[in-house]
Design goal:
single chain, alpha+beta, 5-stranded mixed sheet, 4-stranded antiparallel sheet, 20% strand
């Protein structure tokens, strides 16, 4: 079983067909997971960061200092305020541990979509996140979130947690799913949206189901 979510940012004034990573790929991936874990383990502290971020809204446009491009949102600041309220109620969760198979599966999808400019959780051949994990030797029990548009880890994780324009806040639900214990992040340039990051989550290190304890 797998759960899939996509988040797409609208960047104003950018040239979408060319992308250059601002840091080494592995560094970005590591930083994305670090920031997810900060939000999971310290949700109220992350809420304070979102309060600072909310100051830079001008209607539905975010104009962050030092950023080359503005970002157009669907809901404006109201989505950030809703995320802050959620985080204030959210109990701390254990951090996610990086898992090799999940990382490889996430990178496989980022590489394939980045080259073609496609979006979504299905590959060009129609494979799902679970099938990509199975090809890597794991199981199909994974959740997958994808963020398009940013190479900056802070912006990637904000996109997933605020979940602007997404009914039900499904990306946020993946990040704060208490049953997940492992994750893998795959990031890279994207032909259509400049950059993308795939995050694959699982309750187990290899995507296999959680089995009940054997009777004693």
């Amino acid at each position: 079983m797998h759960i899939c979510r996509i988040a797409i940012a609208a960047l104003l004034g950018c040239t979408p067909l060319l992308a250059a990573a601002t840091a080494d790929r592995a560094d970005i991936e590591r930083a994305v997971l670090d920031r997810i874990n900060f939000a999971r383990t310290q949700p109220r502290a992350y809420a304070e960061q979102l309060r600072d971020y909310a100051r830079w809204f001008d209607g539905r446009i975010v104009r962050l200092p030092g950023e080359e491009h503005d970002v157009a949102t669907i809901e404006g600041r109201s989505a950030v305020d809703e995320a802050i309220a959620f985080l204030e109620r959210q109990p701390p969760l254990p951090p996610l541990t990086r898992a090799d198979l999940l990382t490889l599966a996430a990178r496989d999808h980022a590489d394939a979509q980045g080259e073609t400019g496609a979006v979504g959780h299905a590959s060009a051949a129609g494979s799902t996140p679970g099938e990509r994990m199975r090809r890597r030797g794991g199981g199909i029990y994974v959740g997958e979130g994808i963020a398009y548009g940013f190479a900056d880890p802070d912006m990637v994780v904000r996109q997933l947690i605020i979940d602007d324009g997404v009914r039900g806040r499904g990306h946020r639900a993946l990040v704060f799913q208490p049953g997940y214990r492992f994750a893998g992040v795959g990031c890279g340039p994207h032909r259509g949206y400049r950059y993308m990051c795939v995050v694959d989550f699982s309750a187990t290190v290899n995507g296999q189901p959680v089995l009940p304890a054997a009777p004693r």
